[in-house]
Specification:
The chain is built from 4 helices and 7 strands. It is α+β, with helices and mostly antiparallel strands. It has one domain (2-161): Nucleoside Triphosphate Pyrophosphohydrolase (Alpha-Beta Complex). Strands 1, 2, 3, 4, 5, 6 and 7 form a 7-stranded mixed sheet that branches. A hairpin with a 7-residue loop joins strand 5 and strand 6. The longest helix is centred in the C-terminal third of the chain and has 16 residues, at 146-161.
């Protein structure tokens, strides 16, 4: 079984007394690429909303990877607050070799610093259809994956009990 080590971030900001979180919407279409022919279908289909995350590059620390992935996938810059937790799961690649993969993702709570959400490089549109702010309180219901729902809950608990 192949192992993958990834890192991601729960980026939060307080606007008008309410906590918001950066999320990304995955593209639809073949091999995860956006398909303009399916644009009408996409608007009716429920989007897959998730947290920005990606593989830790050789020589890179997980926190560095989380900050880089957030910047690449959302267009915003964030600063670290605390590590939330690691999620661990097994999945089967649906592309290429169909290999089973044991994946560990380190998630960090990050505070928004600057940038405009969804201001990302065109080549990132293969991975990210769009990036958007969602209410942190709503995130556990909106996110697609169980481990990421847990990270949003942890982030909400943290911001409610700490000054950040």
């Amino acid at each position: 079984m192949v192992r993958e080590i990834s890192a991601g971030g729960v980026v939060v900001r307080n606007k008008d007394g309410e906590w918001w979180m950066a999320a990304i919407e995955l593209p639809t279409g073949p091999a995860g690429a956006p398909d303009p022919a399916k644009a009408a279908t996409r608007s009716r289909a429920k989007p897959t909303l998730c947290l920005p995350k990606g593989l830790v590059d050789p020589g890179e620390k997980p926190l560095e990877a989380a900050l880089r992935e957030v910047r690449e996938e959302t267009g915003i810059t964030a600063s670290p607050v605390t590590k939330l937790a690691d999620t661990k799961y097994v999945y089967v690649r649906t592309w290429g070799d169909g290999e089973r993969v044991f994946k560990i993702v380190s998630f960090y709570l990050l505070r928004y610093e600057s940038g405009r959400i969804d201001n990302i490089a065109e080549e990132m549109r293969v991975e990210v259809a769009r990036a958007t702010w969602v209410r942190l309180e709503d995130a556990p219901k909106l996110l697609a994956y169980r481990g990421e729902k847990q990270m949003a809950r942890k982030a909400l608990e943290y911001v409610r009990s700490h000054e950040i």
